[in-house]
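A reminder before we start the practical. When you read a complex entry, don't treat the lines as separate problems. The point of joint prediction is that each chain is placed relative to the others, so the output describes one connected object in space. Small molecules and nucleic acid strands, if listed, are placed in the same frame. In the example below there are two entries. Take a minute to note the order of the lines before looking further.
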Amino acid sequence: MNAIIFSAIWGVLMMFSGIFIKTKAVIRNLAITGAAILLLLNIAELSYHFILFHVNTRGMLVFDSFGLLFNTIAFAAALIYLLASARDIEDVGVNQADYLALIFFVLCGVSIASSFNTLLMLFLSIEIISIPLYILTGSDKRNLKSNEASLKYFLMGSFSTGIMLMGIALIYGATGSFALGNMSRQIIGFEPVLMAGLLLLLISMSFKVSAAPFHFWTPDVYDGAPTVFTSFMATIVKAAIFIAFVRLFDAAYGQALPKWRLTIAFIVAATLFIGNITAVFQQSVKRMLAYSSIAQAGFMFFALFGYNEYSKDGIILYSAAYSLATIGIFAILIKMKDYTFDGYNGLAKQQPLLAAVNTIFLLSLAGIPATAGFFAKYYMLVAAVRNGTYLWLVIFAVLCAAVSAYYYFRVIQAMYFKDGDGQVKEASPAFKTILVIVAGLIIILGLFPQLLTVHLYF
Amino acid sequence: MFAVKNQNSAKGIALFISLGVLVVSLLGLTVMNNHANLNYNAPWISILNCNFHIGLDGMGQLICLLTAVCFPLIFISTWNNTYKGANRFYALMLLSQAGLMGVFLAMDALLFYFFWELALIPVYFLSSIWGGEKRIAATFKFFIYTFVGSLIMLVGIIYVYFQANQSFDLQTWYSLKILPEKQTWLFWLFFIAFAIKMPIWPFHTWQPDVYEQSPTAVTMVLSGIMVKMGVFAVIRWLAPIVPDGFYLWGDTISLLCLIGMIYASLIAIKQDDLKRLIAYSSIAHVGLMCLAIFASNKSGIQGVMLQMFNHGINIIGLWIVANAIETKYGTRKLSELGGLAQKDAGLAILLVIIALANIALPLTNGFVGEFMMYNGVFSSAVTKYGVLDMSVAGICIILSAVYTLNMIKKIFYGHSNALTQSGTPTSVPVLVCLSVIVALIFITGVYPKPMLQLTNDSVDAILKYIKTSI
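Here is the predicted structure of the whole assembly.
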């Protein structure tokens, strides 16, 4: 509860700060302070049950350790994101305070997405997340690509929201309630209306997490949006929608999973295949990361596919590993003069530290042991193998993971083994320190994943 | 290690650390040789029931000893090579040593996988940064190959983990009885990873390129020790865990090994590049080791144990010579060399001995190991084709004599040319290393008993779990 209210308040505060404060640095620091307080308040609620605002939600929101733990990850990632890239937000356009305000509104949506207990709240959270993102995507107003991306995102997004509403309406018609609890009771028998509703819901959620075959908007939107906001969209937002998906699954599909498993297996296989294979052919690192985010979504889908005791640990670990690494890579990408793979040539000579941390991030995304990405992937595979069937899908997934190593390592090759003058804009010592901390976190999680997952149980 | 800027001090520290490791492993062999000292077990990730369990048994000791002996030899023999960023080079070398040791020590499957990958990463960087012209493509192929293999193995590990009631412990896995029909495909999940590492035909295509393109010090690590990871893993992590699959596919794998041996030997005969020649000879030798494992009897597996050590020592000797020649004359082409024996008699004598060990002449270490392996293959009770396997494999000894002696002839005898006229005797550190290797060759060749005793118990323990007759 702390997070929802506080992020909304701070968002409004940020909005007005643009009028009263003229110094960019103050606004920036205000946002960073806000993210830090948000993180602390959320940790207080998770560990000490310290609740600042008591609101009776009548069971529409549930604050369990799963949701709160994810909030902690999301806010920590947001804090890191702001610390590393807040300066770059200023370069996008003139409305710096508004961008930051929108980011806080998205965080508000994120904390609803991790704690909803009725379909209405799910819808609300998805909308609160999406609408600021449409604006952020188009924030580079003079850039045609940014405008195109924004329009595309808006049209496709509203389309999928419509499908979601349709699905929710059908489910309401079948069960007479929006509550998630009722759905799982009703779902045991086969009821065409309910099934149709669930299918529409599945489609719209797949759209939001950019799972194939509903992924077509992703590369263009991620590529067109200003890189700072792509970083935000591809990490925190994506992970949050996955968390919402897992919560929904818990209640709606969980008991009837065998019926859905083939559908989901198809989505997983298609997502992994399209994401990984297309990423191989990209020339721009930014576009490669867009496809890699599709591919990673395919892996995250395993949490839904093999719905069992490993899924929640897995998705928590995955969202942490993926968000941290991707934010780091994007933070460096923003500083690059040239977004193609060749732009990275010889970076290791110019900026040995940046190249080293970037390597750690990429290794983590590829799932090499001793990085957080390994245990994230490991949990997903365990969740899938646990069920004992569909082993072909697991083997297909690891082959795709090997393909992913190909394009991640292309960046490493460019940085270390090729000659060139990979240029970065100025990189301050503070910026480097933050990236080193992120890299440290990734390695710590890679050696002791239980540091994070243990909070699910206590 | 990354902090050391001075090249010479980096070399010195690396050598010192590797010698320290050697001393520790020797201590492990002699003074503190009891079970309690050689085992360490601590919970690592308790939620997954995964322990940081490392331990040394006989075969672990032997192969760790090999690793510990090899690294100082590698450092000394390449003392005169200069590397840009030597501190990073030596740091990565030591990191790969740590990974390799971890693989040989791990008693917990997840830990094993962890080290298995960890050994790969430094080697990938070493070869890609300091390698030859075509290094990027070659090492990347190597990386992708092994990464695919290990990920497939990871699926296998997770599957067995659930079969074993969520345990990664090696002993629990040994006592597991997995249904035979599951073992048939489970076998391949593991074997592909090991076959790529060894490498077994047709998974070998990465190997000659990588050996050729890597800096020689790294090639020594790859061929001397890393290749043994695959052989070792088949013995410890494959045969006792899926014995039925192991038995069922035995003949198929033997066939692959034989094809690989003949194929590699024939190509080695036609090679003009010294490094590629040694690379192909390595494929042939490893093929024989794999063949002998699948013979599933004591003579075969003991022979493999001994030969793992021997092959590691011998091939490092060959690489040292290749490195010495390349740094001095700037070429590895056999056709451009000749008549070196007059200029550099010391090197010639030592190389001839190592080469004879490579073709398994009596009194050298190669003879003992290979004889035991051939004996194992011949008397194997799990296959009907023992005699046939043995005779085809026997041809490879002849072929190996052809290419090895041919190599010596072309390098050391015949007429010297303009390039080799200027030859000078080899430097002392290289000769010292080669002498150590030659001494080891004769010691194990004449008196292999201590080593065989060392691995005796662990081989017996493994034979308990695998099917030894039809």
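Discuss with your neighbour: Chain A has a mean pLDDT of 87. What might explain this?
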